[in-house]
Specification:
The chain is mainly beta and 274 residues long. 0% of the residues lie in helices and 47% in strands.
Length: 274
Protein backbone atom coordinates (compact mmCIF):
# COMPACT_ATOMS: atom_id res chain seq x y z
CA UNK A 1 0.00 0.00 0.00
CA UNK A 2 1.09 3.55 -0.59
CA UNK A 3 1.78 5.83 2.35
CA UNK A 4 0.24 9.29 2.61
CA UNK A 5 2.20 12.40 1.67
CA UNK A 6 3.59 14.66 4.34
CA UNK A 7 1.35 17.50 5.43
CA UNK A 8 2.70 20.88 6.42
CA UNK A 9 1.02 23.55 8.47
CA UNK A 10 -0.15 26.29 6.12
CA UNK A 11 -0.13 29.99 6.82
CA UNK A 12 -3.14 31.00 8.89
CA UNK A 13 -3.34 34.73 8.27
CA UNK A 14 -1.34 36.81 5.79
CA UNK A 15 -2.59 39.39 3.32
CA UNK A 16 -0.24 41.92 1.75
CA UNK A 17 0.30 43.02 -1.85
CA UNK A 18 2.41 40.58 -3.86
CA UNK A 19 5.45 41.94 -5.70
CA UNK A 20 7.04 40.03 -8.62
CA UNK A 21 10.35 38.27 -8.11
CA UNK A 22 13.52 39.89 -9.38
CA UNK A 23 16.44 38.36 -11.24
CA UNK A 24 18.76 35.65 -9.92
CA UNK A 25 20.71 36.62 -6.77
CA UNK A 26 19.40 40.19 -6.77
CA UNK A 27 18.73 41.06 -3.13
CA UNK A 28 16.97 44.41 -2.53
CA UNK A 29 17.32 46.48 0.60
CA UNK A 30 14.82 45.29 3.19
CA UNK A 31 11.90 47.52 4.15
CA UNK A 32 10.63 48.27 7.65
CA UNK A 33 8.18 45.73 8.99
CA UNK A 34 4.92 46.15 7.05
CA UNK A 35 1.54 46.69 8.62
CA UNK A 36 -0.03 43.42 9.82
CA UNK A 37 -2.85 42.17 7.56
CA UNK A 38 -5.36 42.09 10.42
CA UNK A 39 -6.16 44.38 13.37
CA UNK A 40 -3.35 42.95 15.48
CA UNK A 41 -0.56 44.85 17.19
CA UNK A 42 2.65 42.85 17.82
CA UNK A 43 3.80 43.34 21.40
CA UNK A 44 7.17 41.62 20.81
CA UNK A 45 7.00 39.71 24.08
CA UNK A 46 8.53 36.52 22.63
CA UNK A 47 5.21 34.67 22.93
CA UNK A 48 2.75 34.04 20.10
CA UNK A 49 -0.82 33.91 21.35
CA UNK A 50 -3.99 32.72 19.60
CA UNK A 51 -5.04 36.35 19.08
CA UNK A 52 -1.72 36.99 17.31
CA UNK A 53 -2.37 34.23 14.74
CA UNK A 54 -5.91 34.95 13.56
CA UNK A 55 -7.56 32.80 10.91
CA UNK A 56 -8.85 34.93 8.04
CA UNK A 57 -10.99 33.15 5.45
CA UNK A 58 -10.84 33.96 1.72
CA UNK A 59 -7.87 36.27 2.15
CA UNK A 60 -4.83 35.40 0.02
CA UNK A 61 -1.51 34.74 1.76
CA UNK A 62 1.28 35.72 -0.67
CA UNK A 63 4.44 33.58 -0.84
CA UNK A 64 7.40 32.92 -3.06
CA UNK A 65 7.51 29.14 -3.50
CA UNK A 66 10.59 27.37 -4.82
CA UNK A 67 11.21 23.67 -5.46
CA UNK A 68 14.55 21.99 -4.70
CA UNK A 69 16.11 25.10 -3.19
CA UNK A 70 19.28 25.56 -1.11
CA UNK A 71 18.40 26.74 2.38
CA UNK A 72 20.01 27.58 5.72
CA UNK A 73 17.77 26.38 8.56
CA UNK A 74 20.55 26.37 11.18
CA UNK A 75 21.17 30.12 11.03
CA UNK A 76 24.19 32.20 11.94
CA UNK A 77 25.09 33.36 15.45
CA UNK A 78 23.45 32.26 18.67
CA UNK A 79 20.85 33.30 21.24
CA UNK A 80 19.48 36.79 20.55
CA UNK A 81 21.98 37.41 17.72
CA UNK A 82 20.85 34.47 15.58
CA UNK A 83 19.71 35.24 12.04
CA UNK A 84 18.59 33.34 8.97
CA UNK A 85 19.22 34.88 5.56
CA UNK A 86 16.52 33.77 3.11
CA UNK A 87 16.58 37.04 1.19
CA UNK A 88 18.12 35.96 -2.13
CA UNK A 89 15.64 35.88 -4.98
CA UNK A 90 15.79 33.22 -7.69
CA UNK A 91 14.45 32.81 -11.18
CA UNK A 92 12.72 29.64 -9.96
CA UNK A 93 10.62 31.56 -7.40
CA UNK A 94 6.92 31.21 -8.11
CA UNK A 95 4.56 33.82 -6.63
CA UNK A 96 1.81 31.79 -4.97
CA UNK A 97 -1.29 32.79 -3.03
CA UNK A 98 -2.46 30.42 -0.29
CA UNK A 99 -5.97 30.95 1.02
CA UNK A 100 -7.89 29.52 3.95
CA UNK A 101 -11.50 28.71 3.00
CA UNK A 102 -14.54 27.46 4.88
CA UNK A 103 -14.82 23.68 5.19
CA UNK A 104 -18.52 23.86 4.29
CA UNK A 105 -17.60 24.57 0.66
CA UNK A 106 -15.67 21.29 0.16
CA UNK A 107 -16.86 17.88 -1.05
CA UNK A 108 -15.32 16.15 1.98
CA UNK A 109 -16.96 18.43 4.58
CA UNK A 110 -19.35 15.70 5.91
CA UNK A 111 -16.35 13.49 6.80
CA UNK A 112 -14.91 16.15 9.15
CA UNK A 113 -17.76 17.20 11.47
CA UNK A 114 -15.44 19.15 13.77
CA UNK A 115 -13.56 20.94 11.00
CA UNK A 116 -13.66 24.69 10.44
CA UNK A 117 -11.41 25.61 7.52
CA UNK A 118 -9.04 24.18 4.90
CA UNK A 119 -5.87 25.27 3.14
CA UNK A 120 -3.66 23.79 0.46
CA UNK A 121 -0.71 21.83 1.80
CA UNK A 122 2.58 20.48 0.51
CA UNK A 123 1.83 17.56 -1.80
CA UNK A 124 -1.21 19.07 -3.52
CA UNK A 125 -3.73 18.01 -0.87
CA UNK A 126 -6.05 20.06 1.33
CA UNK A 127 -5.42 20.11 5.07
CA UNK A 128 -8.56 20.22 7.21
CA UNK A 129 -8.22 22.29 10.40
CA UNK A 130 -10.01 23.46 13.52
CA UNK A 131 -8.84 25.83 16.23
CA UNK A 132 -9.66 27.13 19.68
CA UNK A 133 -7.94 29.36 22.21
CA UNK A 134 -5.27 26.75 22.96
CA UNK A 135 -4.22 25.31 19.59
CA UNK A 136 -4.68 24.84 15.85
CA UNK A 137 -5.57 21.23 15.02
CA UNK A 138 -5.04 19.18 11.86
CA UNK A 139 -7.95 16.76 11.39
CA UNK A 140 -6.85 15.09 8.17
CA UNK A 141 -6.24 15.50 4.44
CA UNK A 142 -8.15 15.20 1.21
CA UNK A 143 -7.74 15.73 -2.49
CA UNK A 144 -9.25 19.07 -3.59
CA UNK A 145 -11.41 17.28 -6.15
CA UNK A 146 -13.77 14.43 -5.32
CA UNK A 147 -12.57 12.26 -8.22
CA UNK A 148 -9.26 13.58 -9.58
CA UNK A 149 -7.55 11.79 -12.51
CA UNK A 150 -4.96 10.24 -10.18
CA UNK A 151 -7.57 8.89 -7.76
CA UNK A 152 -9.18 10.23 -4.60
CA UNK A 153 -7.26 10.81 -1.37
CA UNK A 154 -9.09 10.96 1.96
CA UNK A 155 -7.18 10.57 5.24
CA UNK A 156 -9.10 11.15 8.48
CA UNK A 157 -7.22 11.19 11.79
CA UNK A 158 -8.80 9.42 14.76
CA UNK A 159 -7.99 12.46 16.91
CA UNK A 160 -7.11 16.10 16.28
CA UNK A 161 -3.38 16.78 15.92
CA UNK A 162 -2.29 20.00 17.64
CA UNK A 163 0.10 21.45 15.07
CA UNK A 164 0.37 24.86 16.75
CA UNK A 165 -0.06 25.48 20.47
CA UNK A 166 -0.81 28.77 22.21
CA UNK A 167 0.92 30.62 23.66
CA UNK A 168 3.94 29.48 21.64
CA UNK A 169 7.33 30.36 23.11
CA UNK A 170 10.93 29.32 22.59
CA UNK A 171 11.60 26.06 24.39
CA UNK A 172 8.15 24.56 23.81
CA UNK A 173 8.13 20.96 22.54
CA UNK A 174 5.38 18.39 22.13
CA UNK A 175 4.49 15.18 20.29
CA UNK A 176 1.21 14.15 18.64
CA UNK A 177 0.18 10.75 17.27
CA UNK A 178 -2.88 9.97 15.16
CA UNK A 179 -4.16 6.87 13.38
CA UNK A 180 -5.78 6.58 9.96
CA UNK A 181 -8.28 3.75 9.45
CA UNK A 182 -10.15 3.14 6.23
CA UNK A 183 -8.27 5.87 4.40
CA UNK A 184 -7.61 6.25 0.69
CA UNK A 185 -4.47 7.47 -1.09
CA UNK A 186 -4.75 8.05 -4.85
CA UNK A 187 -7.64 5.60 -4.97
CA UNK A 188 -5.87 2.87 -2.99
CA UNK A 189 -6.81 1.77 0.56
CA UNK A 190 -4.57 2.96 3.37
CA UNK A 191 -4.29 2.43 7.12
CA UNK A 192 -1.44 3.79 9.21
CA UNK A 193 -0.10 6.03 11.95
CA UNK A 194 1.43 9.51 11.77
CA UNK A 195 3.61 10.83 14.60
CA UNK A 196 4.49 14.52 14.78
CA UNK A 197 7.34 15.86 16.93
CA UNK A 198 7.36 19.66 17.32
CA UNK A 199 10.01 21.91 18.88
CA UNK A 200 10.09 25.72 19.05
CA UNK A 201 13.81 25.78 19.59
CA UNK A 202 15.25 29.15 18.51
CA UNK A 203 14.40 32.76 17.73
CA UNK A 204 16.09 35.61 15.92
CA UNK A 205 15.99 37.61 12.68
CA UNK A 206 14.59 36.14 9.47
CA UNK A 207 15.69 38.03 6.36
CA UNK A 208 13.32 37.72 3.40
CA UNK A 209 13.18 39.57 0.07
CA UNK A 210 12.22 43.19 0.80
CA UNK A 211 11.61 42.71 4.53
CA UNK A 212 13.33 41.58 7.74
CA UNK A 213 11.46 40.13 10.68
CA UNK A 214 13.46 40.90 13.81
CA UNK A 215 11.56 38.47 16.04
CA UNK A 216 11.00 35.17 14.25
CA UNK A 217 10.39 31.92 16.14
CA UNK A 218 11.75 28.73 14.57
CA UNK A 219 9.56 25.65 14.87
CA UNK A 220 10.95 22.28 13.81
CA UNK A 221 8.60 19.43 12.85
CA UNK A 222 9.50 15.79 12.26
CA UNK A 223 6.70 13.67 10.79
CA UNK A 224 6.94 9.88 10.86
CA UNK A 225 4.40 7.97 8.73
CA UNK A 226 4.04 4.24 9.33
CA UNK A 227 1.72 2.10 7.17
CA UNK A 228 -0.21 -0.59 9.05
CA UNK A 229 0.57 -3.21 6.41
CA UNK A 230 3.41 -3.29 3.89
CA UNK A 231 5.82 -0.53 2.97
CA UNK A 232 8.32 1.13 5.24
CA UNK A 233 8.28 4.07 7.59
CA UNK A 234 8.80 7.47 5.97
CA UNK A 235 10.03 10.60 7.72
CA UNK A 236 10.01 14.22 6.63
CA UNK A 237 11.30 17.38 8.28
CA UNK A 238 9.91 20.88 8.23
CA UNK A 239 11.32 24.13 9.61
CA UNK A 240 8.84 27.00 9.93
CA UNK A 241 9.21 30.57 11.16
CA UNK A 242 6.39 32.37 12.96
CA UNK A 243 5.88 36.01 13.78
CA UNK A 244 3.28 37.80 15.89
CA UNK A 245 0.30 38.98 13.78
CA UNK A 246 1.85 37.76 10.50
CA UNK A 247 1.61 34.03 11.21
CA UNK A 248 3.91 31.73 9.26
CA UNK A 249 6.48 33.84 7.41
CA UNK A 250 8.80 31.09 6.14
CA UNK A 251 8.88 27.33 5.69
CA UNK A 252 11.40 24.79 4.42
CA UNK A 253 10.27 21.20 3.84
CA UNK A 254 12.90 18.49 3.46
CA UNK A 255 13.10 15.57 1.11
CA UNK A 256 11.73 12.27 2.34
CA UNK A 257 13.87 10.47 4.94
CA UNK A 258 16.26 13.41 5.36
CA UNK A 259 18.72 12.43 8.13
CA UNK A 260 20.00 15.91 8.99
CA UNK A 261 17.99 18.21 11.26
CA UNK A 262 19.83 21.15 9.68
CA UNK A 263 19.21 20.05 6.10
CA UNK A 264 20.60 22.30 3.36
CA UNK A 265 18.27 21.47 0.44
CA UNK A 266 14.53 22.03 0.71
CA UNK A 267 12.15 20.03 -1.42
CA UNK A 268 9.91 23.09 -1.10
CA UNK A 269 10.78 26.54 0.21
CA UNK A 270 8.06 29.08 1.04
CA UNK A 271 8.79 32.70 1.93
CA UNK A 272 6.45 35.51 2.85
CA UNK A 273 6.13 37.93 -0.07
CA UNK A 274 5.17 41.60 -0.04
Amino acid sequence: MRRPPHISTPALALALALLPACSENQTPQPSPLPTPPTPCLPDLDNAITAAEVPTVLDLAAPYLVTASAPVDVAGQGADDTRRWDWSAERLEDTPTDITATALDDQWYAPMFPGGQFVTGSTGGLDGVYARDATAVYLLGLASPEMNPPGGRTLLIYDRPVGVLRFPLTEGDAWTETATITGGTVAGLPYNGTDTYAFAADASGELHLPYVRFTQALRVRTLVTSTPAIGGGTTTRRQVSFWNECFGEIGRATSRANEPAADFTTAEELRRFAL
